[in-house]
Every structure is written in C-alpha cells, then in structure tokens.
Amino acid sequence: MPAVGASLNRSAVVLPPLALGVLAAVWGRNMPIPVEIVVVALLAGSVLAAVHHAEVVAHRVGEPFGSLILAVAVTVIEVGLIITLMVSGGSGTATLARDTVFAAVMITCNGIAGLSLLVTALRSHVAVFNAEGTGAALAAVITLATLSMVLPTFTTSAPAPQFTGPQLAFAAVASLTLYALFVVVQNVRHRDYFLPVAGPPDDHAELPSMRQALTSLALLIVALVAVVGLAKVESGSIEAGVARFGFPHSFVGVVIAVLILLPETLAAVRNARRDRVQISLNLALGSAIASIGLTIPAIAVASIWLNGPLILGLGATQIVLLTLTAGVGVLTVMPGRATLLQAAVHLSICAAFLFLAASP
Predict the structure, then answer these.
(1) Which of helix, strand or coil describes residue 129?
(2) What does pTM read for this prediction?
(3) Which residue did the predictor score with more confidence, 58 or 312?
(4) Among 40, 233, 272, 310, which one is least packed by beta carbons within 10 Å?
C-alpha cells in the first residue's frame, strides 16, 4: 500500500468532485464525441481515486473491516444504478438485476479471485490464504446465488423464471440475513479467519489520521457516485455499442458489472502484488456476497412500484457456469494454497462466461 499516512494523493482529492461536477453538467444531455472522451477519462480517473481512498480508509481501520468498506460502498451504488435503470423502463430491464448480479458473481469469484491468485503465484509460486474464512465466504456466495437466482427457474407457483411475491420476500429476507451474519462473522466473532496468514506486515506507512480517514471516506463515496453516474451517462453509448457488435441486450448487465467492479479489481491486484492474497479474496468474495445480499432485498422492495415482470431465474448455460464455479471454488479453497493452475482455471471460467454472454 502506498504511504497513505503522510498526505492524501492530490489528484485523488481533485478528481472525484471534478467528475461529480461534470456528471451534473452532462446529465440528461446529448454529448459530442470530445465530451464523451472527457467523460470516459474522468470515469477512469474516478476508479483510480476510489481505490486510493479505499486503501487509506482500510489502512486506518485495519483488516478485514477495511475490505468490507469498498465492497459495501460499491454494491450500494450498484443497487441504485440497477433500480434507476429499471424504473426508467425499456427493453431488457426485466432481467437487468439478474444479469448484473450474476455477472458480478462470475467476475468476482473467477475474474478477480483468479487474477489475484495469478499475481501472487507468479511472485511467490504458491498463494497461501486462510481456508476457514475463504471457505465460509464461498459457501455464503453459493447459497445466496442458488436461493436467489437458481430456484426461480424451477419453482412452479409462478411462470418460470419468476418468483411469486411471498417467494421473493423469502429470498430477500434470507439474503439480507445471511449477509448480516457474514459481516458479524468476518468482523467480530471470527475475525482472525479473514486475516492474512503469510506475507509481509501491512507496510511501514504511517497510519492515517482520523481526519484523513474521514476525508478519504467522503471522497470514496463521491468517487463511487461519480463512477456509477458517469457509467449511467454512458449507458446509451454502451447499449448502442452492444447492439452494434451484435451482442444480446443482457450483455449490458455484464458491462455495468465490469465498470462497477473496476475499483475492487484494482484494489485486489494491488494487495496480491504485496503477497496479501487473503485481502484480495476478501474483496472478491465479499463483493459477491454484498452484491446478492443487498441487491435482492432492494429489488424486492422496489418491485412494489416497478412495472413489468421481475425475472431472476438463470438460464441453463448460466446455471452450468455457476455450478462449475462452485465446484472449482471449493477445490481451490479447501487446501488453503493455490498455484498458477488454480488461477488459470478460474480465469478460464471467467473468460468462458464473458464469451458466452456475448455469444450465447
């Protein structure tokens, strides 16, 4: 981690409010190409700023609570973006929540986790992590994904792949309960299960002051709002690009998930480069748990006023990929050690998901 205690990165302080100002200026307007280029540049800058501020806050509060901050912040904004797009209507919104959340699960459990294992294994030959904590997180992900996105395909009370009202309420309560229990286990009762078991100490950087940490927390929220807001501004261009390449409309959810998960991906890779793969896995699996555990309850409440059907059930191809992810994830986590092979397997599953999402 950079020496965050001395001072906050100047560009990381300036970029989030600047991006938020540009977001306010371009919201709801047609943009010429030069302005779109500026928006994309600010989007990338806001992602980097979010990573910096998340690391400052994490360094102040310590792990594993620090890993939780970025995951929750990103997921809360993700939920807001999904609901905003669903309220605005349009074709494909009935499956937007499912497509985005499933993409987030596949990218975190295979893409971010696989990339983190790859970076660590290239440096240290073997990535060592805590199997108890990582296994518990993976179990929560598999259970949440199955209850919320697999069961609707097979229930019979409503036309598949939909839940009835009571079924959706049950899935929402179960998701929120499991997420809350995970937070308690990770940060209170079994905190040591989610701490690094090997590697150097948390650098020699000066501990940020409380004022610096609070400033970074505020700027982190601003940066994440800017990231999602600018992604929303670019959503029309994203949809046009998806259509131009001949991809299905569901691929929009994949693009949204990729944009939203950029801060966590960069933070996970940075930790992996410092031989702190446990923190990277905390970010990956914690993000997947938060994505389901917060999104499903929010969508369940929003469905009261949303028009049209809410489709949460996965298709056959998606269920196969989720099952493969669960099986491979268990085999990776059980030994508490991983090599380049496990990293390559997870990255291959992520690549297969992205390819099949574009060409089902």
Answers:
(1) coil
(2) 0.83
(3) 312
(4) 40
